[in-house]
Amino acid sequence: MSSVFGKNIICSIFGQSHSAGIGVVVDGLPAGEAIDLERVAAFMDRRRPGRNPGDTPRRESDAARVLSGLAEGKTCGAPLCAVIENSDTRSGDYEKLRDIPRPGHADYPLRVKHGGHNDIRGGGHASGRLTAPLCFAGAVCLQLLERRGVSIKAEIQQIGGVFDSEAFDAVILEARERGDSVGGVIACRAEGLPAGLGAPMFDGVENRLAAALFGIPAVRGVEFGAGFAAAGMRGSGHNDAYRLEGGTIYTGTNHHGGVLGGVTTGMPLVFRVAIKPTPSIARQQQSVDLKRMEPAALSIGGRHDACIVPRAIPVTEAVAAIVLLDFMQEKPYGF
Amino acid sequence: MSSVFGKNIICSIFGQSHSAGIGVVVDGLPAGEAIDLERVAAFMDRRRPGRNPGDTPRRESDAARVLSGLAEGKTCGAPLCAVIENSDTRSGDYEKLRDIPRPGHADYPLRVKHGGHNDIRGGGHASGRLTAPLCFAGAVCLQLLERRGVSIKAEIQQIGGVFDSEAFDAVILEARERGDSVGGVIACRAEGLPAGLGAPMFDGVENRLAAALFGIPAVRGVEFGAGFAAAGMRGSGHNDAYRLEGGTIYTGTNHHGGVLGGVTTGMPLVFRVAIKPTPSIARQQQSVDLKRMEPAALSIGGRHDACIVPRAIPVTEAVAAIVLLDFMQEKPYGF
Amino acid sequence: MSSVFGKNIICSIFGQSHSAGIGVVVDGLPAGEAIDLERVAAFMDRRRPGRNPGDTPRRESDAARVLSGLAEGKTCGAPLCAVIENSDTRSGDYEKLRDIPRPGHADYPLRVKHGGHNDIRGGGHASGRLTAPLCFAGAVCLQLLERRGVSIKAEIQQIGGVFDSEAFDAVILEARERGDSVGGVIACRAEGLPAGLGAPMFDGVENRLAAALFGIPAVRGVEFGAGFAAAGMRGSGHNDAYRLEGGTIYTGTNHHGGVLGGVTTGMPLVFRVAIKPTPSIARQQQSVDLKRMEPAALSIGGRHDACIVPRAIPVTEAVAAIVLLDFMQEKPYGF
Amino acid sequence: MSSVFGKNIICSIFGQSHSAGIGVVVDGLPAGEAIDLERVAAFMDRRRPGRNPGDTPRRESDAARVLSGLAEGKTCGAPLCAVIENSDTRSGDYEKLRDIPRPGHADYPLRVKHGGHNDIRGGGHASGRLTAPLCFAGAVCLQLLERRGVSIKAEIQQIGGVFDSEAFDAVILEARERGDSVGGVIACRAEGLPAGLGAPMFDGVENRLAAALFGIPAVRGVEFGAGFAAAGMRGSGHNDAYRLEGGTIYTGTNHHGGVLGGVTTGMPLVFRVAIKPTPSIARQQQSVDLKRMEPAALSIGGRHDACIVPRAIPVTEAVAAIVLLDFMQEKPYGF
């Protein structure tokens, strides 16, 4: 099920970087929900290249066309399908890479997996381009969540080891000038979730969110609440004491990040994802010619991002929205 | 599907900390595999309390009885079920906690989720006790992996912020003396995996491993390869150049941790999990009496671990074994 | 996922006919539901051999021991596991059958599937014995359904081509006397289901019920409403006209069997299952010795049912109960 | 997961009868398989209306456009997506039906399920139109099966109770003239399957095939081998004796229909589906106006099939192909 995920809300992503089209089918959305497609397009715009320094100069038209799932502007219970046509693709750029796998990309393992038949143009199905339909699906889910009092907001915590947000552009541009790239960390926060969503062990909020977040290309780590920093804390400092205010239970601190044992506590859900530096860099790299079985130097042309972290912000929100709406479709206790 | 996971190898975990028994059903194991139950028991012993300083003084008999799935000592294609009887349980210790949720535990969110009907004794189904059957399943899978040339080895990277392995015991004992607890980080490495396992996007090695690893109570973060540190690196430093030796492709460095785009590269699979400090501490904590709806101080008696990191080592290996064997049951290209 | 099924209510069945024990794990039951274990035992008794003419003389103690999932007699949100110990097993009866597959049984295809490592004793995991834990799970689900106003009742429609219920015993006994066996058809009816359960296409009531019902050994056909007879009807006669009475929509006839396009209409759900004659018969049969690769005559000793239809009645109800409760756990429109 | 099915080969169907487009995403196809799109189109043509007497006069252009999943004419490991644009839709025909559910259609239960927000035009997502993308997916799978030595062939067994194939057209035309419709039975046979595919209990060939076949609108029954007729047979007559010829095991008769206990035997897989008479008929019918809550007479205009059985033949083959290829993607014993 490489590109299908979800339980109540099931997303099926399709497309390759350079195929005729890419898109998503979202099955299981509750019916009767008005979808503002202009807001969806505005959300998707946040992912489009060309808005941040260091973005790829490739111009994507991310205009998503809805093929099904709506009737009179509202969800109708049928699967929602949206398609984005691919246009500005320069497949010629990639032909020479057929036998020389790019370091840091999935070229080599996919070649083994698919016996050399994988679509290498632009990264094929493993391309970051596939996060566009993911953003479509997430933008739709965000509207439903908003109607249920849930908001999701991601932001950059650091770029290339620098935590000062005013320096982010400079860090990215410096990397670009050197023919290099940088990664970063995105922090995401969901507010308004009810307590009691999820389950212990293998089907809880952390399990399903992590599984989906690792579906974003370049994500190398996922942590909740204090995350890896919790490893250095004492229990007395890490435990969040319960408090009471106006009949509401809450915790003053939020080291648990809104989820304990897989189940939401009603406090803000907080998680972070680590994003590696873009593997496509202008600098020459060392690889192997798999046909001739000999070392080969590789210079990646094409048009690439020096840092995908800014564009990964809406993608992170989108994935969180899809997973959290899925949990909210579970029947709660007592109904 | 709170306690069921897997695609080809499906584990279903059952039991509560203080129920009559706990156990696991493993469906989908290939037939004809001899299982050395003594080695399984030895593996489970590594998880048993009482072996490390700071372990709970609670004595568990983790003797697992196989109810089904074997015929003449070999897997027979039927689901493998093993049961561990619970004996040394002191349920009385927990009764007073019914209405006062313990900070850092799932008591409160589970109370909301289950309308107060969850089994609070010993943490119920959310207890670390449930990792015993997980170890059983993992120990079985490890024997099959070993036969296929795959080994898995986890070790402690840090305890409570200290990276010097000789100081681990002291850190734990100091926390215990202060009525406190510590967490840590476990690093795990799987060698011998073929290239080409997994898939891009949502059903790859990172997705499924992360989802399963977050099923281990107290895990708060999962990272692959360089993980969060990748965020601070440049692409030129993070990319692992391909090399050739004796007809074999490999990478000299392994920042990618053996998996690119969800698919294994044939290099050692490397991941780390962050484990929070045990939430059960002797020190008095602040909570709320949910019945009287008033603040309540809480002192947790019972018998608890000051640090579960040493006991989580085999659990991490077990989870990795189950997930990786599952991937190895996929039909590879060309068959 | 050979022995796991369900979406919100997930059953995992384990055991072989002659393994130490058999049982079931039921994950996803709503919490706070009192389970009357005596009624569960009484339900399971209906499946036990020895109650009907033609039953196997084998005596099964189907006493199911609950290992987990209950707290103070109520479901607690943790997986419910019940185990039945196997005792009266005569494995010696089967040894000679190792290389000579019994016609009508899964011996031969399972031998191929598992490379000869399947447990042949008593049919192993493919044995009708495995319907005992299924009945446990179903009996539990029936109590929850009853509390929600849903009742399920199955009955024999025909035995061996005879539709007169007073002649059933004679038909079975005659077959037994001739060293032969008979099959039959069971009709099942669920009342009280709300309209709107299920979904069109692949995840509706017919899809999931049929998939589960074919899990009952010996079931060879499943039909809903008029079923195969619908093929001989005209649309004008088959369509059920809607009527109105006291503000309630209903249909005067029920050829649709309570489900249209995968979704319940609120009318009684009606389906039938065809059960083949028990393949184990006393008469000599023709088979092949797979070791010597030569023809071999086969006389099946052991203790067998001349007709399993009567014992399959509670099994049919049980399967229906599990699947229907699963559907009732879906969040309905508007919540 | 209303419109998603499969384990290794996952199909996600989308679209409504009158939405902008309909289509399918097929995830999990092995890579490197050449797909002859002309043969796919020819297969889909068999489902198109207008080829049989009694077909709807509606003209569908079923031209499927492949958006992704192929590279240089071969599968590339990425999900295969095909879209069919909807054009000849007359939505006006349906507006008056909004509040008056058509007997025999899913209008009423879907109205309840979706709170009245389902797309009623042309049956929406529950329309037989959705079998067009299913045929696309099946036609692709058939090419892969053919390459693996497996063929699938369905044919009409009876129409409206008449088993003489030469009379089928007359039966259908007579029904049409009377403003009525007829159903029928389709028999399907798959040859060349290896023994050992599937599994006992809940994930075998019957389970998954039946679940998928009930996804074809109007299917009311599914049976394997002798099916419901087995209920009237004796074990001695129903059991298929094993024979040996040239080192090959086979059965002279095939009452078991190629599958025992969920697992293929290597004999031809034989099943039948019962198809109800088309619910859309010209004759006036009785229904209820759900807005005014009063009885209402209903005459269905629009363009409809007097019998969909002929068009359901390729659909049956398509569904069988998808499910059987899925099973063939399981890793067999010993690999």
Overview of this protein structure:
Four copies of one chain form a homotetramer. With 335 residues, chain A is of the alpha+beta class. The first copy, chain A, is 24% helix and 24% strand. In chain A, a hairpin with a 6-residue loop joins strand 2 and strand 3. In chain A, the strands form six sheets. Chain A has a five-stranded antiparallel sheet, with helices on one face. Chain A has a four-stranded antiparallel sheet with strand order 8-9-15-10. A two-stranded antiparallel sheet of chain A has the order 5-6. Chain A is built from eight helices and 17 strands. In chain A, helix 4 packs across helix 8 and helix 6 packs antiparallel against helix 8. The model of chain A has no long low-confidence stretch (mean pLDDT 94). Chain A is globular. At the A-B interface, strand 1, helix 3, helix 6, strand 10 and helix 7 of A face strand 1, helix 3, helix 6, strand 10 and helix 7 of B. Strand 10 of chain A pairs antiparallel with strand 10 of chain B.
Which secondary structure elements does this structure contain, and how are they paired or packed?
The structure is a homotetramer of 335-residue chains.
Chain A: E1 4-5, E2 10-14, E3 21-27, H1 37-45, E4 64-68, E5 70-71, E6 74-75, E7 80-85, H2 92-95, H3 107-113, H4 131-147, E8 151-159, H5 168-177, E9 184-191, H6 205-213, E10 219-224, H7 235-238, E11 242-245, E12 248-251, E13 259-260, E14 263-264, E15 269-275, E16 285-289, E17 294-298, H8 309-328
Helix pairs in contact in A: 1-4, 4-8, 6-8
Beta fraction of chain A: 15-25%
Distance between the termini of chain A: 32 Å
Q: What number is the mean pLDDT of chain A? A: 94
Biggest protein-protein contact in the assembly:
A-B, 114 and 114 residues
